[in-house]
Design goal:
The complex is a heterotrimer of chains A (about 650), B (about 450) and C (about 160). Chain A is an alpha+beta fold and about 650 residues long. Chain A has 25 helices and 15 strands. Chain A has a 6-stranded mixed β-sheet. Chain A has a 6-stranded mixed β-sheet with strand order 8-7-12-9-10-11. Chain A has a 3-stranded antiparallel β-sheet with strand order 13-14-15. Chain A starts with about 25 loop residues before the first strand and ends with a helix. Classes of the chains: A alpha+beta (about 650), B alpha/beta (about 450), C alpha+beta (about 160).
């Protein structure tokens, strides 16, 4: 097909961009115009790097600058050719800090039709940066299916028609075979049938089991007719300002991860302990939030037990020492010998507990990988599938409607649902619209059983009725998913070490107070699990890589600046504060279990009010207040948001 | 009385033999070296030609080193006759040297195409240090150099000529380049690559004469199309330096026939390097392998046996590697065996080509082309050599390798090639480091 | 870890997760930058994406690279490793083709050969490996990967994932 080798940018590099390259960075952004079939490298200046860092920081600014409609009041929708699909790494990517191959996908997502920031890892960041690029900015719609091939300075849009219909693993297998590159010599992020068919919760899956899953970023890729991004391990060098210092900082981070109580279990078992730990809090979502009491012996769900049943093999991301990502070989049952990605906690919950599959552990592991292959977000699938199961049980969705009987815990039935959604077959066509749209289409009483936010996002795989902090975060975040995230060393940013999690006021203050860190982490090109160390260590690593002098307060300020920019984009997308609330079921009160009777609904409005006050945003319009923007150094945004009045 | 060794030829084979004798001998012997030239390494002359090393860098043994090793050297002398019955040889200055054993390591020399004007002014061979000096003196930036012959030797100095800023044209009588190093498909790829890098190539070109043309040189061809240039380099082949052995009593075929101890038909006369016709590792047949690694191994095995050890030599493996304009071109073993089972592959996006040749489950030869910046190619160069050298059974991987000729590593490792190779040494013991002298051997 | 002439890099393939951190550390020692393309320890994949193992110079007894070098540019350092003397190496690549293990490398930028020199006795790869899949021990070198690779290549050969 087209061979669009790198061309000189139409703009001459600015003098600052022509300066000595910035340590820690590859130094170029790769721009891909699918409609024009052209790819070119754009320089970015050390000043811009310092301002935007990378990942979501860079992506948010690109969305803000490039996705507005004419006049700047509105925003292009997810399926518009001018929507951008930013696949960004960051300054730490490719360097020896653990989990340093971070990919952050930033786009206008198909789920909320608003801004998206979603992460994955594997070897994307490493392969891309050693090829000479810090990020890929994709625009336009390809006339026919292509994949993006990157091999150092050879960047081409290649015919992908033969890959069409293949699942994400088969796509990577095929490209590996075709290019004669095995293992991490080739990093492939692709979409499966769900992305091709524009399922609104389609994800982008890469390197066998790593998923940028949120907000339908895979549908954006599908709309652009971009089947895959394949990056050959680059042959260029990355310089660190103080390489020895960087290795020391990386080792210190590793030490924290191995020994710090807040990270140690992740180090040993990844997110597997989540199942049992969250069940103790009532935060393990069971059967579509219909109960919080497990009907099975929980000892079989202890982390070591989850590994024992499999021949598990390390499948770590770049430079990572966590015992987190693994491949598992199923040892028994009808799928014996099958290699699957060891499910994350969210896999066990979304492909397991949420749909009532609580005893067939092998089955859940297999189903989770089927979702990755189809490229569906496991969280939203859990809510969709669990909802359909509950509705069938209650007679709200009939066997005729669905085409078959889907009972709680039915792995094969769930797999059938995956295929129906991925190919938009029958009832699957409706379900492919995501849990909110499907529920609204059916209306009450089915609608009242569905778990979503009014913005159109699906929550993570927890029962947030026992995690009010995450529910508030999920509902208020511009990206529709966790923005403040799980707190790591909250005292470091002046927040209390622990709070009463059912005190709405305290929760709102806390979740507002820890804001900023996560966007910073998601800009580094690292993994959210390997940044579970003191911010001071992250600063030390970043500064050793770049030669900067970033301080802890600056990281928080940077993250909040990024939040404000994402918020500005979401406002352009028409997301108003009235959408910042949970659906009926999502915001309901647990009827049993450890959080029984804890009514988040009763405190909701007050929580949101407090949150707005604390973050310095206008409760009515949702806009960041001019004083807030000034404090963040975003005066230019004040002008855009508030006009001359400010 | 100390054993008297005479080593005839100060090239790679001779110098390796001398050092190995010193390493292995039980009692200090007398070593006499007769060499027409001061010992130097031909392999590095291309780097002298492009001025990346000084001339002093090419020498493999300075007089001081020879003295340290206790070698009595007759430099600038040739042996004119060997009398195996009398255990003596005669030098061109009339000196007679008696020996208890001797090593024939007189190598080979360049031959020029038999065309009128081939021995004229401005026409050079590139084989000896003197010839390198002469070429270097004549090439200036902007010179037009014509290389007659497109074989391995020509290609070793291709980069150097370009590095000197000269314009290069290669003319080859055969229909394609590198006829004795790679196959047609590989040659086509290399030709395209060179054309892209500004090297003009004329194949199937029968040179008729070389004439003087107003201070320049004019090459006329049978099919017309003259070329006028400044310098002509004749890289039209080499011949074994055997003439002086007539009547010596040593059996000669294409070279001096040697056994697995590098002994000739006369038990106390050894031969090594380009001049020896020893066992080919792959075919098991006698062969002349005029390459540096064979000279080195021959020299060491001969030296050890001359020092009283009993070292058998498995045979030598043809290996060639040359880099042209950052493209690595290598071949091994029986790469050109017409009746071998072969499988090849080309990479669409890189100048990369592989050919694997099989006899049963064993890899007997290979061709590999790839960008030299591609470190993974370099990996595979060595591994292919290891597979051919060790002859491990690749039964499990044969079908896979035929489909995936670029995926050598899993086959190499999983076939336990490392296990097969680890015990293998040329002399039956760990090799010793060359030491602090700039001596290769 | 004490550097002795008998220490070798011992590979424990079953512990390798394929994170390639060793390559980063190695390239830093080799070049002063992070440049995995110039690492002399290389993680090989078996069974595509589920099995990996680092592969590097065995410091073999023959020292094919060393004996092949026409200018004596490869010697044995204090750690017992075959080591390239940069100022002597001319870049002729003979060592890269002589080494039957595929562990000699050539840098087109510097026009020199390079290889594992055990970092002079404190190998950075062993230091960097987060799972202790590479250790530096006083033992005889062996074919550390062969059996692992044999088992873990079955699927590749069977053409299944």
């Amino acid at each position: 097909m087209t061979t669009a080798s790198l061309r000189a940018p139409s703009k001459r590099p600015t003098p600052s961009a022509a300066r000595q390259p910035q340590d820690g960075y590859a130094g170029k952004l790769l721009r891909v115009d699918l409609a024009k079939k052209k790819c070119w490298a754009e320089p970015w200046s050390p000043d811009a790097m310092r301002e935007l860092v990378g990942g979501v920081g860079l992506g948010a600014m690109i969305l803000y600058r490039e996705t507005a409609t004419k006049g700047g009041k509105g925003n292009v929708s997810w399926d518009h050719p001018d929507n951008r699909l930013v696949m960004a790494t960051g300054p730490m990517a490719g360097l020896p800090a653990w989990g340093s191959s971070g990919l952050t996908v930033v786009t206008i997502g198909a789920g909320t039709n608003g801004p998206t920031s979603t992460q994955a890892n594997g070897f994307f960041g490493t392969n891309l940066k050693y090829s000479g690029y810090d990020a890929i900015i994709i625009q336009g719609h390809a006339p026919d299916w292509v994949y993006l091939y990157i091999n150092d300075d050879v960047v081409e849009l290649r015919d992908a028609r033969d890959l069409l219909g293949k699942d994400t693993w088969a796509t990577q297998d095929t490209l590996s075979a075709k290019l004669g590159l095995s293992g991490h010599m080739l990093s492939v992020y692709s979409i499966g049938p769900a992305g091709e068919n524009l399922a609104r919760f389609a994800a982008i899956q890469g390197d066998y089991g790593h998923v940028a899953s949120k907000n339908g970023c895979g549908a954006v890729m599908g709309k652009k007719k971009l089947k895959a991004v394949a990056i050959v391990r680059g042959t260029k060098a990355l310089r660190a300002s103080d390489p020895r210092g960087l290795m020391q900082a990386a080792d210190d981070i590793g030490f924290d991860l191995r020994t710090d109580p807040s990270a140690k279990s992740l180090y040993e078992y990844g997110t597997l302990p989540g199942v049992v730990n969250l069940s103790r809090l009532g935060a393990l979502p069971i059967k579509n939030y219909t109960t919080n009491v497990s009907s099975v012996d929980m000892s079989q769900w202890e982390a070591p037990k989850l590994r024992e049943g499999f021949d598990h093999r390390g499948h770590q991301c770049s430079a990572c020492g966590m015992h987190h990502c693994h491949m598992s070989v199923i040892r028994q049952g009808e799928r014996k010998g099958t290699i699957v990605d060891e499910p994350e906690y969210e896999g066990w919950s979304g492909a397991g507990w949420a749909i009532g599959a609580m005893s067939d552990i092998e089955g859940v592991a297999w189903l989770n990988t089927e979702l990755d292959k189809a490229c569906l977000d496991v969280n939203e699938f859990g809510w969709i599938c669990g909802w359909v199961m509950e509705c069938q049980e209650k007679g709200y969705i009939t066997e005729e409607q669905l085409g078959f009987r889907l009972k709680w815990g039915d792995i094969k039935g769930a797999a059938r649902l995956i295929q129906m959604i991925s190919h938009r077959q029958g009832f699957g066509n409706l379900l492919a619209e995501g849990v909110k749209r499907a529920a609204e289409k059916l209306g009450s009483p089915a609608k009242d059983c569905a778990i979503y936010t009014e913005r159109g996002a699906a929550p993570r795989g927890h029962d947030h009725r026992a995690r009010w902090d995450e529910m508030l975060d999920t509902c208020t975040a511009a990206t529709g998913t966790l923005e403040s995230g799980v707190p790591v060393h909250p005292t470091e940013v002046g927040q209390p070490a622990r709070i009463n999690t059912f005190d709405g006021e305290a929760v709102a203050k806390f979740i507002a107070g820890i804001r900023g860190r996560r966007n910073f982490e998601d800009s580094l090109g690292m993994c959210i699990f390997t940044t579970r160390t003191r911010l001071e260590n992250l600063c030390r690593a970043l500064n050793a890589a770049t030669g900067w002098d970033v301080t802890v307060p600056e990281t928080v300020r940077f993250g909040r600046r990024t939040s404000a920019i994402l918020r500005a984009v979401s406002l352009r997308c028409g997301h108003t504060p009235d959408l910042e609330r949970p659906s009926t079921r999502y915001g309901s009160t647990p009827i049993d279990g450890p959080a029984k009777g804890q009514a988040v609904g009763a405190q909701w409005e007050k929580m949101v009010d407090t949150w707005y006050r604390e973050v310095g945003y206008d409760r009515k319009s949702g806009k960041p207040l001019p004083a807030t923007l000034k404090e963040l150094g975003l005066d230019w945004l004040t002008k855009d948001l508030w006009g001359k009045r400010a | 009385m100390a054993t008297r060794h005479v080593v005839i030829g100060g090239g790679t084979a001779g110098m390796n033999a001398i050092r190995t004798i010193r390493e292995e001998e039980a009692a200090r012997s007398e070593i006499t070296l007769v060499s027409a030239e001061k010992p130097y390494s031909r392999m590095v002359l291309p780097y002298y030609l492009d001025r990346s090393i000084a001339e002093s860098h090419v020498f493999t043994a300075t007089p001081r080193v020879l003295a340290d090793w206790g070698v009595k050297a007759h430099l600038g002398r040739r042996v004119t006759a060997l009398d195996a019955k009398a255990n003596a040889c005669t030098l061109d200055d009339g000196t007679t040297l008696e020996y208890d054993d001797c090593l024939i390591a007189t190598g080979s020399s360049a031959v020029r195409a038999p065309v009128p004007g081939a021995d004229g002014r401005g026409v050079h061979s590139f084989w000896t240090l003197d010839e390198a000096r002469a070429v270097l003196a004549e090439i200036a930036p902007g010179s037009h150099v014509v290389m007659v012959g497109a074989g391995f030797i020509a290609f070793t100095i291709l980069n150097s000529i370009l590095a000197l800023g000269a314009k290069l044209t290669i003319v080859e009588m055969e229909p394609r380049i590198l006829p004795r190093m790679i196959d047609d498909a590989g040659a086509t790829l290399v030709e395209g690559w060179l054309a892209k890098h500004g090297v003009a190539i004329r194949t199937g070109a029968r040179l008729a004469t070389i004439e003087d043309a107003k201070g320049r040189k004019r090459l006329r061809f049978a099919a017309g199309g003259d070329i006028v240039c400044d310098v002509v380099i004749m890289a039209t082949g080499i011949k074994t330096n055997l003439e002086w052995l007539k009547g010596s009593g040593v059996t000669i075929n294409r070279g001096v026939i040697v056994d697995d101890h590098l002994r000739s038909s006369v038990p106390n006369v050894y031969a090594a390097g380009d001049i020896a016709e020893g066992r080919d590792l792959i075919t098991g047949e006698p062969a002349v392998h005029a390459i540096e690694p064979t000279a080195q191994e021959h020299g060491r095995v001969a030296g050890a046996n001359m020092a009283g050890k009993d070292v058998r030599y498995r045979g030598s493996l043809i290996i060639n590697i040359v880099e042209v304009c950052h493209l690595d071109v290598a071949s091994f073993g029986a790469w050109d065996e017409a009746k071998a089972e072969a499988a090849s592959g080309v990479k669409p996006d890189r100048p990369a080509y592989r050919k694997l040749l099989w006899r049963g489950d064993r890899l007997t030869g290979a061709i590999i082309l790839g960008p030299s910046s591609d470190i993974w190619t370099t990996n595979d160069v060595g591994m292919l050599k290891g597979l051919v050298q060790s002859g491990v059974s690749l039964a499990r991987f044969k079908a896979y390798l035929k489909r995936n000729p670029f995926d050598i590593k899993p086959a190499f490792i999983a076939s336990k090639t490392t296990s097969a190779l680890l015990p293998e040494t040329i002399l039956g013991r760990p090799s010793k480091a060359p030491g602090n002298t700039p001596v290769a051997v | 870890m004490l550097a002795t002439a008998t220490n070798v890099l011992r590979i424990h393939p079953e512990k390798c997760t394929g994170c390639l951190r060793c390559e980063l550390a190695c390239s830093y020692m080799q070049t002063g930058t992070f440049h995995p393309a110039k690492s002399v320890i290389r993680v090989s994949p078996f069974e595509g994406h589920t099995s990996y193992a680092p592969y590097t110079c065995t410091q073999c007894a023959e020292g094919w690279c060393m004996t092949a070098c026409p200018v004596g540019a490869i010697t044995i350092n204090a750690a017992g490793a075959k080591d390239v003397l940069d100022d002597t190496c001319v870049g002729c690549k003979l060592c890269t083709i002589a080494c039957p293990y595929g562990t000699m490398f050539y840098d087109p930028d510097t026009r020199k050969a390079f290889k594992c020199n055990l970092c002079g006795g404190a190998p950075a790869c062993a230091e960097a490996c987060p799972t202790a899949a590479i250790t530096y021990e006083g033992t005889a070198t062996e074919d550390w990967l062969g059996e692992f690779a044999r088992v873990r290549s079955a699927r590749v050969l069977a053409g299944v994932r």
